[in-house]
Fold these 4 entries.
Entry 1:
Amino acid sequence: MFIQQLINGLTLGAIYSLIALGYTLVYGILRLINFAHSEVLMLGAFIGLGVLTFFPAAFQAGPLGLTTVFVLSMLGSGVLNMFIEKCAYRPLRHTLSLAPLISAIGISIILQNAVFLWITNQSQTFPEIVVPTNFSIGPATLNSLQLVILFTSLVLMVLLHLFIQKTKTGKAMRACADDLEAAALMGIDSNQIIGITFLVGGALGGAAGVLNGMYYGSIKYNLGFLPGVKAFTAAVLGGIGNIQGAVLGGFILGILEVAAAGYLPNGSEWKDVVAFVILIFVLLIRPTGILGEKIAEKV
């Protein structure tokens, strides 16, 4: 029972970690909570559904078809996130910090209602693109869908780590996260780096949207709200702005949520409450999160 719950928790946590990385990347540079990220996640899922609907050959293409679905969803979500940054956040960058936050909430509402009005307000079945196969691990069972989710998430996390640590653009992103103004004085095009950050964060959100659709089997115009809130909680739990913290927080939250559903009386009804309890507890006890560091205020 414990091993099975652990496997289920790691699978769910992998999705939360990908979403949390999108939040933490943007916050690390702009100190902005991109609340529209949950809708980017939702649109990534709809892009994936659109690819599978209009190009049914992706069903028969095996790993290549699945990769194509992910690439197109990530590309579409990333470009959308860049467009959001350019139109809704960049003009407000030097205003009061509350203005970009309100803009982010406004964009979230606009995107959600755009899908509601112009695409569909009904749940859509997400095609079963992974042939279900079960593997026994002692008393527990690991299915092929869980393997795909875990493998895809870990590959994307490793690629992000290598991109941030080894590439010139990644080093520029780290410099901007340390001090945006100083990085600009050293010749780094901050607008370009911020745009790339939104592109990468949106791409991860798009991938998470496809994984979410595969995991639950359906998608809807408001599917991004709960996963988005939970992933934000995971980012805060791990240390908002810290990439490793976002991954750690996502897995911890996934395991705790599944454990609550499995072990608490009427746990399935209480599992969504776990994220909010954790968020309040972390903010009260350790506001910087597990791996977060206290940032000195500039005078």
Entry 2:
Amino acid sequence: MPKAEREFFPITDVDWTPAQGGTVPGLYERILAADPATGVATRILRFDPGTNTSAAGPQAHDFWEEVYILEGALHDLTLNQTFPSGTYACRPPGMRHGPWVAPGGCLTFEVRYAQR
């Protein structure tokens, strides 16, 4: 089943839920649209101040991922580089990224879609 069709709605209608199954304290997501068959989704991801994703390690996915930082900043521990609000990433399937630290917190908008 592809992502459900939805017309404009307030994203606050979608509750925050723990991301990554709750394995990273302080990491929450609002899933705006998802395809349960493929796992691709559109979401808002929230890093509370001080969130550190080191326990989850670097990530790599079997789908494309686009990320836009709306608020705050993310520090990539592997690259030792900080990415502030207003920056964007487009990651192909298999690209390793992270882990991340968000000392002051961060909010991202992400779109994930299947590899063709």
Entry 3:
Amino acid sequence: MLFATIHRLPADFWYFLSRLGEMQLMLPIAFALIAWLVWAGEGRRAALWLAMVGLAVGITAASKIAFIGWGIGSARLNFTGFSGHAMHAAAVMPLLAGSITADRSRWIRLGAVTFALALAMLVAISRIKLGAHSPSEVFLGYLLGGLASSLALGLGNPPHAHPQRWLVASVFAALLLNSSMLPTLPTHDVVTRVALQLSGRDKPYTRNMMLRDERLHRHKAQPVVALPRYKASEVEFFTSSITA
């Protein structure tokens, strides 16, 4: 029943969710949280958060560059690179939830982080619903971001301080106004230009090219059935028996 309800949700809902995972929204929130940690005297934790988020962003960008420039992907999995939206949402939203509930009980913090991961999952699903990514790209992007946020939170160990109310209010305002206020950034175009410059290709390698090459490879790999060879006397015998 739940999955059927989710499947029938309108396209505008999925578009709004998809925008929650955009880099220009998630990364400023992550940097704001990191800056708050530094201000609160938790420099080591801020460095850990920055390293985890930065590593996830770097791996995602590298996977896209590797595919566009060198065709490194998987046709069987329909994988051309980690979904950036899924990764950003899973990497940043749990950090936000863990920070807001830093002074609450352990169960409240756990519930908040779990809710954030569920919301990030909906963001990931929205990329499939909008036809932007394959399931493998979304799942692996979500897994990468979730791993980064889990390590950043220290597997359930939140910051000791609580963020200021103005910071929390600003973050939620950005989340609510994202679909109408934030412009879309040409991040894919930037990644494509970088990939072409590094690889020396004239044109980007695309998903259609990957699937086409896979079909050609399968066609060439199919075994050729050898037809039986007959001697001339056997052919004459078969022919005479048919015409007799």
Entry 4:
Amino acid sequence: MPIGTPFHERTFALCQSLSYRDWSGYYTVSSYETHHEHEYNAIRNAAALIDISPLYKYLVTGPDATRLVDRVVTRNMDKIAVGQVIYTPWCDSRGKVVDDGTVSRLEEQRYRWTAAEPNLRWLHRNAVGLNVHIEDISEQLAALALQGPLSARVLRAVGCNVSSLRYFRVTSSTIAGVPVDISRTGYTGDLGYELWIPAAEAVRVWDALMEAGRAFDLKPAGMLALDIARIEAGLLLIDVDFTGSRKALIDAQRYSPFELGLGRLVDLDKRRFVGQQALLEEKKRGWARQIVGLEVDWPSVEALYQRAGLPPQPSPTASRVAVPVYRDGIQVGKATSTTWSPTLKRLLALATVRADLAEVGTVVEVEITVEAVRHRAPATVTRTPFFHPARKTATPPP
């Protein structure tokens, strides 16, 4: 049975819909109101507060901490400075992705590692022979994502000066007298921050942010709004867009970083890391498939509804149900995450397609169901992120 996060006494009181889901054993709000429209609009037009405490969190310290991180992830840790955060996958010996997440270099030999799934045993297995300490701090550390164009102003209102905090950097501060780490990261593709807070003091920080945020129309947001935002941002979700190699039942469910479209995050020239040889070989021979962005031709979808005598009905929620992708009448892949973008006014999808069809501008077809009848609509391979505002990485305005 799920339990509440450190913010549960606040989020439960605000959750009018009583719509929850289980995220790693925690009650997580799907939407606070009966519809998530206001929550999504807060992410894109004001500021939103999202409880991300169910993330797994690990603290890696000791003389060989950097060696361990470098041994596991595909990024080159020699290039990562103190105060920097990286997004990275990590692989098994076959070069297939185990999981993905962020690693923050807090000190020379001190790292905070976040993951979607439990990885403590994996880290210990790869730490054999190293002088390193790995601590699971998942329950000790609460986490909030403060996202949206006004998020920096909310932080300034509680006394945190983040004007000089660059994209994918982390700093320390205090909110309501509570020590917090603030990283300029997030899962929405917008200007935003993630706050790492001692669990015992979590409610004090929540209250301070909500009080200061009133002037900026800050709203708590749930997973339904976040799902739309992350697809607009072209961000992958484990167990939806791909399966971690430890849970995969068949080879087709296992993906390499190249197949995920994350080849830019693989440094094959660095010192030896798990899966390196397999990835070297894959790069030489190429890969058969790749995850890409698709923009579905909306006029074609409208025509399908018109022929059925119905107005077009884009779903207000993102779909995590895989549907076939075709080319010349042959199935060439699957769309795994699909959403109507309220901001872009487009029907978007993240999809696995044959590698020879991954070039931007390639036209394929996506299965669309209208009144239980399956149809196909044209879709074009498009660069991701679909939504990429300058404010995401620019210096926040005063």
